[in-house]
């Protein structure tokens, strides 16, 4: 993921089909059990319906930005903080207050977003999650999606701590779901509950917890099942803290005229390949504003959308300028602090802040000297995002930017107390020394295998006359019997992702952190004879025994630059069309089975997910 001009231009110069169409017959073993009903379906990028509710301009920016609460532990026993959190259904005013509408939602602890869990590195936490949701889903469940058929309850949950170094039994594996009627635990008197144990043996950072149940992750997260999980050291109080440290969850939603959530119901033979809402929702409120003092603030920003990438920058509404704005000083990414401050904005090291699904950014913004001025956090990412530069609506007819404004920031509050926070660069030196003293996992120096995976967009014939148009990893369907890669605990591997599709894909690996070591463009070789699509079809038809070698059909270009705010510990990486991204993955912590997947939730639900298994080293 790069936000510099060199990378964006390299994407524009490539030519690749938007969609490679592959066919497979029901004869192949991949489709021995067809989880879909017998009708052709295809995936379409979808948005709000024609009757969806619009927010009148006069109601924008009328409500203050909500701040997520913080859960308190119910007990502390044996050095473990214990939490008790129920998933429930409730109503909440997401839309502007003047519209007089409330929205039915799901959430952890009865709020959307959920209250945050705040823990300290090295101090374990146990969370009992209770599924006390209704037995009928808030949204329409499409039984054609793998894992959501008639043999499974409509309402299932599997809580995943995104970015957590957790044992496999506590990772929120997609098939390890629980239901409110106690189907997986008939003896439960009040619905199903499950306790997850988080050792927190990792660096301080911004994690989040959300649902991960097979086949309905996109629905459960859209309904509201998400919250922050902050790993925090006391030394972080030397940064802006308390009222000046604000988690910011960026999402998009669509609403029916009565204020209820709108989401496609699958009644038109189309899967929602990606869904884009038409209303920006920040911390559970549509079009909010944030009143700030003229001093530094710390924003922990998370892209929690189903399918949308955000490309962000501040705009000065007072003097109609995108240059008279404070720089964002980025100090952290997904899984920890950066080595050095990365300035984001006009004249900075990076022009804009690019966040794909599930990515996080920890930034310091100093509003000193901007008294009385108003800023808007603008978004310049098109839908679907495909690697373009920041774009304003109407600037490029080929790029649809439908959500250009996310949050208004008003420097209207008086300075309540002197700012005693230290400079960001000084803090990074201090926290670096703290992290150097950690002894959570031994360093990994043993090289394992190099692996290459394709990101594919295909049409599969899953039964005679039944086409299934979706996205896949390495031409494979999700299955417990799928070919599973088996990295060895205590080794590191280089994984490369080759994006053959027309979309950018945020790829997330559970359990591990990784470093982005290379980005490289590629072009298709247009020759005679078979094509990659043809040979892929043969492979999926069972004509040939091995997956086609992508190297036979592409020419690798020179390396692209890696953005300076994309170099430290990551758990999610954005792979643009016609791009090969290589990440270096140390496998530490635990052996066992985990998953990796695209974090566009519609893609994840529709097969763009595979298991992998970390195996113990042999003697």
TrEMBL record:
Q: Check the record and name the Gene3D superfamilies matching this protein.
A: Cupredoxins - blue copper proteins (2.60.40.420)
InterPro entries for the chain = Cu-oxidase_C, Cu-oxidase_fam, Cupredoxin, TAT_signal
Residue stretches in coiled coil: none
Signal peptide start-end: none
What highest taxon heads this organism's lineage? Archaea
Q: Which SUPFAM superfamilies match?
A: Cupredoxins (SSF49503)
The Plastocyanin-like domain, residue ranges:
474-614
Q: What is this protein called?
A: Multicopper oxidase family protein
| Organism of origin | Salinirubrum litoreum
């Amino acid at each position: 993921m790069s936000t510099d001009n060199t990378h964006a231009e390299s994407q524009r110069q490539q030519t690749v089909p938007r969609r490679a169409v592959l066919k497979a017959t029901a004869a192949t073993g991949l489709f021995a059990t067809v989880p879909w009903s017998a009708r052709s379906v295809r995936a379409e990028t979808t948005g709000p319906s024609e009757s969806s509710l619009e927010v009148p301009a006069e109601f924008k920016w009328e409500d203050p930005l909500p701040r997520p609460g913080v859960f308190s532990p119910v007990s502390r026993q044996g050095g473990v903080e214990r939490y008790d959190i129920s998933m429930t259904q409730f109503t909440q005013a997401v839309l502007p207050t003047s519209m007089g509408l409330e929205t039915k939602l799901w959430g952890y602890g009865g709020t959307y977003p959920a209250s945050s869990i705040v823990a300290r590195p090295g101090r374990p936490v146990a969370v009992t999650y209770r599924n006390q949701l209704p037995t009928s889903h808030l949204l329409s469940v499409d039984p054609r999606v793998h894992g959501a058929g008639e043999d499974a309850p409509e309402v299932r949950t599997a809580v995943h701590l995104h970015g957590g170094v957790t044992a496999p039994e506590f990772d929120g594996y997609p098939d390890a779901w629980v239901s409110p009627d106690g189907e997986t635990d008939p003896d439960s008197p009040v619905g199903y509950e499950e306790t997850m144990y988080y050792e927190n043996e990792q660096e301080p950072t911004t994690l989040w917890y959300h649902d991960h149940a097979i086949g309905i992750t996109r629905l459960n997260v859209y309904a509201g099942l998400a919250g922050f999980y902050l790993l925090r050291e006391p030394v972080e109080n030397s940064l802006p803290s308390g009222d000046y440290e604000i988690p910011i969850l960026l999402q998009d939603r669509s609403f029916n005229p009565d204020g209820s959530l709108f989401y496609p119901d699958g009644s038109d033979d189309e899967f929602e390949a990606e869904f884009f809402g038409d209303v920006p929702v920040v911390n559970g409120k549509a079009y909010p504003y944030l009143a700030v003092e003229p001093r530094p603030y710390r924003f922990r920003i998370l892209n929690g959308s189903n399918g949308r990438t955000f490309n962000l920058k501040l705009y000065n509404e007072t003097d109609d300028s995108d240059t008279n704005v404070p720089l964002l000083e980025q100090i952290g990414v997904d899984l920890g602090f950066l080595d050095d401050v990365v300035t984001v904005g006009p004249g900075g090291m990076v022009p804009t802040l690019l966040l794909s699904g599930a990515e996080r950014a920890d930034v310091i913004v100093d509003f000193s000297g901007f008294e009385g001025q108003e800023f808007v956090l603008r978004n310049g990412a098109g839908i679907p995002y495909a690697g373009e530069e920041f774009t304003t609506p109407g600037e490029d007819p080929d790029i649809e930017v439908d959500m250009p404004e996310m949050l208004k920031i008003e420097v209207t509050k008086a300075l309540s107390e002197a700012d005693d926070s230290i400079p960001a660069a000084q803090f990074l030196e201090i926290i670096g020394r703290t992290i150097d003293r950690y002894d959570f996992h031994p360093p990994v120096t043993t090289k394992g295998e190099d692996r290459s995976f394709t990101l594919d967009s295909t049409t599969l014939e899953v039964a005679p006359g039944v086409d299934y148009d979706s996205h896949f990893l390495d031409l494979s369907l999700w299955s417990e019997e799928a070919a599973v890669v088996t990295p060895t605990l205590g080794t590191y591997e280089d994984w490369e992702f080759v994006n053959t599709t027309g979309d950018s894909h945020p790829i997330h690996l559970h359990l591990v952190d990784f470093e982005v070591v290379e980005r490289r463009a590629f072009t298709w070789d247009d020759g005679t004879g078979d094509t990659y699509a043809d040979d892929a079809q043969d492979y999926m038809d069972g004509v040939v025994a091995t997956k086609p070698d992508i190297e036979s059909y592409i020419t690798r270009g020179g390396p692209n630059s890696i953005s300076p705010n994309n170099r430290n510990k990551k758990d999610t990486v954005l792979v643009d069309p016609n791009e090969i991204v290589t990440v270096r993955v140390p496998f530490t912590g635990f052996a066992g089975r985990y998953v990796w997947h695209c974090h566009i939730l519609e893609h994840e639900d529709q097969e763009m997910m595979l298991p992998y298994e970390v195996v113990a080293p042999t003697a």
